[in-house]
Amino acid sequence: MKLLNITISNLASLTKAAVDFEQAPLSHSGLFAITGDTGAGKSTLLDGICLALYGKTARLRNDLKNTVEFNGDDIKLNDPRNLLRRGCAHGQAEVQFVGQDGERYLARWKIERARKKTDGKLKRPEHILFKVADESQLTQSSSATVNKIEQLIGLNFEQFTRAVLLAQHEFAAFLKASADERAQLLECLTGTDKFSRLGQAIFEHHKEKKSQLEQLQNSLANYHILSDEELASLKDTITTLNGQLTQLKAQSTQYQQDIQWLTQKEQYQLKLQHYQQQLQDLESDIQQQAAKIEQAQLAQLTQQIADNRQQASTLVSQHEKLTHQYDELIKQDYQHQLEVQQALVAESERSQRAAQEKLKNHEPDIKLVRTLDNKRYANAQQLEDNKKQLAITEQQLQELLEQIKQTDKLLKDNQQTQNEQLKQLEQHATLKRALDNWSYLESTFDNISQSTEHIENLKNNYNQQYDERSKLELKLAPLTAKIQNQQSNHTALQEQLDRLQKQLATLDYEALQKQSYSLKSALQLSLDGQKNDHEQLQLAANIDKYRHQHHTLQLQLKDTEKQVDLQKQRALLTQENVTQVQLRASEKVSALRAQLKTGQECMVCGATEHPYGVDHIDSHWQNLIADFSEQQQKAEQALTQAQQRHNDQVIANEQVNTQLQVSLQRKSQLQEQHAKISNSLKELGFEEYVDIDVSQQRLEEIEDKLNRYSELSKTQQQLWQQLQTYQHELTQCQTQHSEIQQKIQSLSAALDANTQQQNDARNTIAQLKHKAQQHYSDNTWWQQYEQNMHSAIQSLTSKVNEFAKWQETLAQLQNTQQQLDAQQRNNEQHQGKLQQTLTQQQSVVTQLHNTLDELDSQRKVILPLTRSADEWFNELQSECEHCNSKWTAHKNTLTQLEQAARQQHIQLEHLKNQLADNQAQQISVEQRFDEWLATQRQQHSELNAATVAELLAVPFKQYEHILKNSQQLHLQHTQALARLNHLHEEIEQHQAQARTTESLDQLAQLQADLNLQIEQVQAHWLDNNTQLKQHEQNVANRQVQQNELSRLQAQYEHWHLLDKLLGDATGKKLRNVAQTQTLKILLQYANQHLSSLSKRYRLSIIGHSLNIAIIDKDMADEQRSVNTLSGGESFLVSLALALGLASLSANKVQISSLFIDEGFGTLDPETLSVALDALDSLQAQGRKVGVISHVSEMTERVATQIHVKKQPGGYSSIQIKGQI
């Protein structure tokens, strides 16, 4: 990974900054310095790199959970958006770099405020990645950008801050830390905290497995198992009870069938009475409705002629209506109306011609009047405009005369005011010098005021620092006593731990665990072996029983197969007999026999004697068919029964055979299991089954020792944690003691510096006063200044401002005097011009009055002035239009009357034709009705025209309901009669199947007694069967639990061993082991860099611990403590460790850019030169190294610099220095 350029906008103190590592001088330098004052923004450059690549910074990495109201935004204090420069609406950081694939990429992190306003809420940052070659955008979201950059660079954020951005203060603490603290720091620096978590996980798994094992051991004691004698007795009892239940249930079934037969008999009797009553009710209803039904049938008959009667009625109504229309139409007379309307049309035509002639004669006069009116209007408008202009001119002249008077008055007042201002300026001439130097005096007074306030602040700070030093001095004595007490507690705990370790050494935990495991395994194997032997004995008896059953079933199968073959032959024979008889008794053969006559030849065989041609031959054949069919059914039934027995025996044989095979297979499994148990016992050192009581006693002794070991281990762990707590508290107290001493020294130095600053501020005030008196030497005012500085300054400021206003007012008055003089001259010239214009306007108004009078005289001759030409023309035009509309209305009325007369003639002819058609239709309809009535009276003599009309007057829906009810009654009567006959047949069949002579109550009592016996026997059977099922379930569950116990015991042994070696509650064991190896690798990389920084020293590990020692080559490879190193030597070693960590973190990743933070101030010039040479040599490895420092010698030594310079206004700028 190689950085190419950095661009920052509006982040912290940097408003606009760009660093291009591809441009000279940075492109030619392997080592460059980032310099600048404190707070200028050097670290902001590194923040910009982290933001552009990972969206977060190293100095804001702590995850604060709570948000606060900060600068108007509700965000976390560690949110990188806090880096946005205050007063800016947007900011961004861009980094262009080369990835591991050799391609160039541009990463951009951008933050904006809502609506791009400085007071808007902060929006979510935008973090995207571009490929420079084709300018394509590779990602859309922030998370996708970070993942892609980690893939391209090969480092995550933590690795990047350790491999690219190096901070020496972490390694300075690393060198001086204890072993435990060094493990924690190393874990943090290398990101290998997974080993601590793994050690904690081992401890938790061991604890969980132990708890599961104890719970399972406790649960095994809760199972109750029956003995063999109890089990056999229980099974015999269940078999006996099963037989009793079968007999009782069969007797109960017999009673239930008898009760059912008696109940059904009673139901048949009730149903017979009900059916008889229904039949009687239906017959009664049919007789009662006979008359209505007959009338409804006649009504149904008249529906045949209903349309005829309806048509006849319609024709009569139509004839009456047509006759009325004809009479009304013939009464209308249109001839007289036509004559009157024609006379009105002729009169309106004459009026129309007269009005048009009048309009044509007056058109020239109307045109002349319009011409005169236009001239009069134009002359009057011109006269009005000139009058208005004349009035305006008169008003302007009057206003100008008034303005001349006012200007003359203002000139006099202005001259008087100028004289007064000159007198005031002459009286206060001493303020003129103060006014000329006022900016200097005002600045001097501000400096004196600030210096005075500074002295007061210094005095307050002096008092606060003095009080704070006194309080810190009081805290030292109790803190020293507390340190001594903690040291004694630490020593006592350490001695107690040593005694506990000796007690643990007497107990061999692994040997005890091994003995416990072997004894438990042998005990379980012995139990399994005894159970196996017992099961093999039972299995041998079962195998003999199954073999005997299998042999018996084979013999029965052979006998049943022979019976099946015999029954098949019998069934075929009876089937053939039935077929032959049915063939001979077929309908065709019967018909031929019926045609045979004595003495005549048979048409089939030609015989004249017919032995089968006798009477009742068909009934004889029917009897034969019935006999043979019965024989066939019995044969088929016997065949079915034989086949069913054969199938049952086959299934039983297969079941027995399956049970036999399962038993043989189980026997083989038990034999293999027995062999495995014997081998396992031999492996454990036992030749035969162990004694259970002795083994249990031995196990209890081992468990007691293991429990004692566990208790001692817990006590040791607790004491160790207390020791660590005391050690931590002691370290805190010592650190606090050192910090208090340092603060007291710092406060003493601050008090001395405060006194010196107060003296310097007083000297500065005296010098400023002396300079100010040279520019304003009013002794009275200076005496007032000494008494009350602020009041005197305000008084002088007021006087100087007032004097300046006087001067300004005088200048304004003089300027106003000149303007008024010029204005007065202009007003006098304008007055003469207005007077001349007024005379001309008066002459024009008089001339226009004369012209208007002459035009009015000409207009009156033709038309009075009160009437306009348009009114005159509109009157004539309205008269013409009125005559035209009158003529049109009369003409339209005449046309309508003529059309109405023609329409009357057509309608009269049409009505005559309709009346003739109606008469013919009435005659035809009456003839058809008479014919139908004559035909129907032959069957229904009571029918006549009146009866038909009465029947048709009633809606047929009423008769339809009666007819429908009649049909339903007859249908119900037929059905009721059929149900009654069918019920008689069922009663006869039911009576033929009589089952008992007992009454229903007697049978119910017998059934109740029997049910009580069944319940008692069944309850007894359920109790015994439940005991058997519980026993079987306990046996199965106990076996499962024992298997689970063996599995958990093995897992517990595994996790116990891991916990003993690597696990603990805090993960220290595995962490220290892993970090020891990490430290070795780190020191190998660090020694490579240290060899170029210092030839004298080499780092090494003390034994297998986490302690670091220094090998001094100049002292014959003497091993020294790192605490003996000087400040500069410690920095060199820390720098070597930092570079070693960079090499370790960048394993398999090429890193071409490196930034190193402060730490060079502790080196002497020679050592600094060596360190810089070593850093410069990293360029040969393809790295560009940037160093952040304030050391002047280093800035002189490093020619290429990125200088961050503070500017007025709270921002900084970037300047690249070096040889191009």
UniProtKB/TrEMBL annotation:
Any coiled-coil regions, as ranges: 206-311, 380-417, 441-510, 543-570, 625-771, 803-840, 894-928, 973-1020
Keyword Coiled coil listed: yes
Gene Ontology molecular function terms on file: ATP hydrolysis activity
Gene3D superfamilies from the UniProt entry: 1.10.287.1490, P-loop containing nucleotide triphosphate hydrolases
Keyword annotations: Coiled coil
GO biological process: double-strand break repair
Protein name: Uncharacterized protein
